[in-house]
Amino acid sequence: MYPSLISLMVVTYVSCDKFILARQLLDEIPTSYFDAVSANLMIASFMKMGAVDVAKTIFNEVPLGDLVTWNSLIGGYVKNDMFKEALSVFRKMLRSNVEPDGYSFASVITACARLGAIDHAKWVHHLMIEKKIELNYILSSALIDMYSKCGRIEIARGIFDSVDHMNVSVWNALINGLAIHGLALDAIGVFSQMGPENVSPDSITFIGLLTACSHCGLVEEGWKYFDLMKSMYLMEPQLEHYGAMVDLLGRAGLLDEAYTMIKEMPIEPDIIIWRTFLSACRIHKNSEMGELASTKISHLGSGDYVLLSNIYCSTNKWDNAEKVRYVMKRKGVRKSSGKSWVEVGNVVHQFKAGDRSHPEAELIYKTLKELIHRTKLEGFSSTTELVLMDISDEEKEENLSYHSEKLALAYGILKSSPGTRIQVSKNLRTCLDCHSWMKVVAKVLNREIIVRDRIRFHHFVDGYCSCGDYW
Fold first, then answer.
1. Sheet holding 464-465, edge to edge
2. I need a labelling partner for 5 at 20 to 30 A (CA). Which of 46, 50, 212, 289 fits?
3. How far apart are CA 115 and CA 402, in angstroms?
4. Alpha-carbon torsion 201, 205, 210, 215, what sign?
């Protein structure tokens, strides 16, 4: 059999979910038998289905890989949320004297954006300039998105101003970047420039606008743009637009309006919309509507159970909260693990709550204890009732002092010069106690602290947060 035919058979098995047959065929044929084209097909297919180890094995054993082979592996890691691994392979590619192209950079830019790793981001951008990679609208949008998600919205704006922005995706990148930084009026201002420059918005533009309004509680403006997309641009709102409106109304405490919107949607609301509504019920401590939302989610995940439990705790319905915890334990549902990370010396350091696995754990905890002492002298006191709300029996964050973002911040402070800006990223929404504490730390140390959580950016300066405590 020809290598291309065998690779096609393997790809066919993978696409038909016949993973075992695909592996059996691979085991019977030496990987060295395949050429680069065949290997590239198989790497892309296995990465698509999440079989990262198989794809990596093929990559390592193919004797004559080409640029596409490297790009397939790097892009596959990014698609499987393995961003540090993608950057590691990219560095290995450079050491192997394989010249990256636009596709290579598109993948690593995405990796930097998802990590929020500003030092890596600047290095990748500098490398693009050095290698004279021509910017198309895809790379321009990716760069704007990368700097936005790395907490440098001012650089993102500068790139927008310096590149050709006739393609709507470049505008969308900036509008969405401004949205996650809570700069709603700026996002609206950018949108207002699109008409004079003859660029028509698309559905993604309006998702960015509605998200921006949601983060700042601009209900009237949100309704305006939701209606505008239908009346002026003749776009039918999709699930994402309805979800953004439910989020906007829910955050603003207009739970009845949010529920009415869900009921009157012309399309079936999905699980994300109900979870958005459930989250709003938790923010505004409405257990009745929270119960209603939970009944609409056919298969409750760990986050749904925790939200419902938190609603009960916040309204002192301890028996109901205990029942939710019991159901979680009976079904073996574990709370999603909170993780935070900080970039120090071109290395991304990750922490979990109560984490002592870091080589410098002793110094980190000593630094954190000193910070806690200084914030107490400033009058800070922990929101201790949150322990019952945020901590599950299955994953005990033993006390609020050792949440993951506090450990990451302590390490960032330990390793940086006084007065420098520190950025921490977290995979979940930051808790109220950590948010309040960060404001005091920023004031005590006279530093800017940036926290990127699952929802948005928080810029802490002189005792205040850019979100205005609305998130």
1. 347-352, 339-344, 422-426, 449-452, 457-461, 464-465
2. 50
3. 22
4. negative
| Helical residues (DSSP H) of 1-82, grouped into ranges | 3-15, 19-28, 36-48, 52-61, 67-79
Give the pTM. Answer: 0.86
In this structure, the dihedral spanned by the alpha carbons of residues 371, 374, 378 and 380, taken in order and rounded to 10 degrees, is: 40
Nearest to 303 by CA among 322, 330, 284, 276: 276
pLDDT tens-digit profile of 91-150? Answer: 999 999 999 999 999 999 999 999 999 999 999 999 999 999 999 999 999 999 999 999
| pLDDT (mean) for 382-386 | 62
d(CA 206, CA 86): 31
Most confident range, picked from 22-26, 119-123, 283-287, 466-470 = 119-123
Strand partners, 450: 423, 459
Q: Percent of the chain, pLDDT > 70?
A: 86
Tokens of 22: 């695909």
Count CA atoms closer than 13 A to 339's CA, side-chain side: 8
Sequence length of the chain is 471
Question: CA angle at residue 317 from 313 to 322, to 5 degrees?
Answer: 75
CA 83 to chain centre: 12
Cα–Cα distance, 335 to 356 (Å, whole number): 20
Query: What is the residue whose two structure tokens read 């533009």?
Result: 205
Q: Is the dihedral of CA 20, 22, 27, 31 positive or negative?
A: negative
For residue 465, the cross-strand partners are: 460
Which residue in this structure is represented by tokens 């930084």? 181
